[in-house]
Amino acid sequence: MTAADRPALQAIAVRAGYRRRRRHPAVTVLSDVHLAARPGELITLIGPNGAGKSTLLRTLVGAQPPLGGRVLLDGHDLAALSPRERARRLAVTLTEPVDVGMMSVEAVVALGRLPYRSWIGRSTARDRAAVDRALVDAGVEELRHRGLGDLSDGERQRVMVARALAQEPAVLVLDEPTAFLDVARRIELAAMLTRLTATTGAAIILSTHDLAFALRRADQVWLVGADGAVTAGAPEDLAYGDAVARTFTGENMSFDDAAATIVVADGGVPGATVRVAADGRVRQWAEHAVRRAGWEPTADACAHVLEVEAGPPCRWRVDGAAVPDADRGRGVGFESLVGHLRRRATSLPEGVRAGRPRFPD
Ligand SMILES: Nc1ncnc2c1ncn2[C@@H]1O[C@H](COP(=O)(O)OP(=O)(O)OP(=O)(O)O)[C@@H](O)[C@H]1O
């Protein structure tokens, strides 16, 4: 094995959990965990609440010892590395707010260089270059003289990534970095992390509750099941092979392949299948309206047919029939379409229903 394909971080037969303490018995949360994070990979760690994601991350970064097995960092047993040697290879960013008083962004990022400083603590040209690069890579260069306390959650999140990057780690671990971020900031952060895997060659491991983000962005997904097993694989393999559906779906829920997310029953009257005759964006939003009404879009030629003309507002009709009280026999807008489909669902014969109405969460 060459250094290039040696895992940056590896778990070998790891048992993760909590040792016995006075009145508390020992708890094994995860057992027989085998994982490998290779250089340049973006890995997402997903699983239901309480499954053991944080326990696994803490074990992988050495914040708690494994109950069994070994964790290797860059081929070295994590337990045998000094804190300084560890910090030169592994950076960790947790969700908890960091109390850094009135420190500037630049000073916070410079903390990432501590593992490289001599006991005198003076920064070298290499330290300063690493801080500059980290500020640019994390997209926070323009914030460098601002106080960390004055930033938004999203900006502070990026600064903490910059501090971790200044460590020049082989492995970067982020605990729920997308929590508290709005959709645009989440997409920006995801794009930044993907870019970083290519530019720095680091393996980036992050836990998240955002299933669609986890499946769309990752090179590898680590799926922690409620049964204490951890499954690793390409996102497509885990989604296609039902591992994701088995882990996350319960009664009235299923995994929607197209949206890469869980869909839940909305409790209304189930509709039938319908073929949406439209193109582009209007088709996408028509299918959205169809699902919201409890019907199911299909490519099946025998199904009901919904014709939609682009707008806005869009104009529509179902099965070629004129829509009563509508504009020239066509319904106008998606709100009236959803209403029409819901009313129509109540008069459908039982045999043609598509199942429980479902809608992406
Ligand atoms: N200090 C502890 N001592 C004993 N058991 C613990 C301790 N911390 C967590 N646990 C238990 O370990 C299990 C896994 O918890 P963990 O926090 O790792 O789950 P998680 O997947 O990160 O959950 P969430 O998505 O809710 O953050 C839970 O049953 C939890 O109660």
UniProtKB/TrEMBL annotation:
The keyword ATP-binding applies. Residues 14-251 form the ABC transporter domain. This is Iron complex transport system ATP-binding protein. Keywords: ATP-binding, Nucleotide-binding. Gene3D superfamilies: P-loop containing nucleotide triphosphate hydrolases (3.40.50.300). It comes from Saccharothrix australiensis. The keyword DNA damage does not apply. One of its GO terms (molecular function) is ATP binding. Pfam families: ABC_tran. CDD domains: ABC_Iron-Siderophores_B12_Hemin. InterPro entries: AAA+_ATPase, ABC_transporter-like_ATP-bd, P-loop_NTPase.
